[in-house]
Amino acid sequence: MARPKTPRLNRAMIVDAALELVSSSKGLTMPGLADKLGVSVSSVYHHVRNRTELVELIRGRIAGREFGDLDRNGPWRTVLATWLREYRSAFSPYPDLVRLLIGQTISAPEVLEQYEYIAGVIIAAGFPREEALPVIMVLDSFALGSALDLSAPDEIWAANPTEHAHLTTAIAAAPAEVVARADAAFEYGLRCLLDGLAFRLGETPTATT
Amino acid sequence: MARPKTPRLNRAMIVDAALELVSSSKGLTMPGLADKLGVSVSSVYHHVRNRTELVELIRGRIAGREFGDLDRNGPWRTVLATWLREYRSAFSPYPDLVRLLIGQTISAPEVLEQYEYIAGVIIAAGFPREEALPVIMVLDSFALGSALDLSAPDEIWAANPTEHAHLTTAIAAAPAEVVARADAAFEYGLRCLLDGLAFRLGETPTATT
DNA sequence: ACCTGAACACCGTTCAAGT
DNA sequence: ACCTGAACACCGTTCAAGT
């Protein structure tokens, strides 16, 4: 074989295949990826410097999608709520992706654009300059933590009804299925967080998200 | 050598050594751990079923510490704030520990006890049963996400002053050092979250944390 | 430039062998 | 029970060799 006249691999294809592997039973491995693409491992390395770079490409792909649908007008609460929802839901088809991305420093340029936009929204909303970064970081922490819940097992805590009475009550009163439970918690936290932020701005936290 | 009359290894020693390795340059590996303990790899496996179990033991150790200092009296805001602060600060000596723990399902019993206690506080505070789990999950997501910030690089975003004007402004107005920056964001988010929760309870969110 | 096969260092885990 | 040395399967990465 060796060098075919028309390349049989490109970065887009590689990222596609990698994304499919991330949440598969075997996870993302270079041999597994090569296999799925029908090439040899070393061939993949001709298009991607290393595994780290591959993960950054995946991050860019995900971030790009998310950013596309963002509505730039409207009140800050709505914009931030939309962004956070899309941020998180971008991960739902790939439950294990969050953990993969968390393990690694951000360098994808698409992500920078997003934060730039969000920073603008926050400043325009009236938050003082020193609070802008904290606000971003808090939203980020919350979205990331919430996205992690998507890949949690159905039974997060093996609570014992007699030893853990309160916890058992709490669990029984919430949806049993992971995604439904995570969704509910996310929406609940979103409202709390936005209410808290509105309160800091001196606004009445009654507005709808 | 073979079986010495007095064992030269036990679980506590192993967890100690493992904790030291987690945030070291080489990270936590079984060969590295054996090396640090001065024994062979297979020897470690005699005390710990596998790497997964080892990580669970580490989780238990950390959770145990944290829970010890919890003040059980006082208003719910204070109790939750204290818990969240200790939760997060338990990770600060081991910046990379969060990522290690996140990769794995919780099974350490010490952690269950904690959530049981927190569930009790939340219910006693007056939150309806259906909101108890969401509240716990939201606090959890936030604390976890915030703990992740502790291991972030000094320069999280390589923001370009001309292309990312708002982001640059935000970054310039915040502490430059990782830990100081993460601390500020955490305290800010903590207040927002508790304010938002107080608002849901019908309380005036003016109380000090 | 773009692909292959073979190789290397490293990791998690197991197992027969010793006391 | 508790330790060792050797082995296995697997992973990320490199490199000379081919067109």
Overview of the molecule:
- 2 copies of one chain form a homodimer.
- Chain A is 63% helix and 0% strand.
- In chain A, helix 5 (76-89) packs antiparallel against helix 7 (109-125) and helix 7 packs across helix 8 (129-149).
- Chain A has a domain at 68-201: Tetracycline Repressor, domain 2.
- Chain A has 10 helices and no strands.
- The first copy, chain A, has helices at 11-22, 30-37, 41-44, 51-68, 76-89, 97-102, 109-125, 129-149, 165-172, 178-201.
- With 209 residues, chain A is mostly helical.
- The longest helix of chain A is centred in the C-terminal third of the chain and has 24 residues, at 178-201.
- At the A-B interface, helix 7, helix 8, helix 9 and helix 10 of A face helix 7, helix 8, helix 9 and helix 10 of B.
- Chain B binds a DNA duplex (19 and 19 nucleotides) through helix 2 and helix 3.
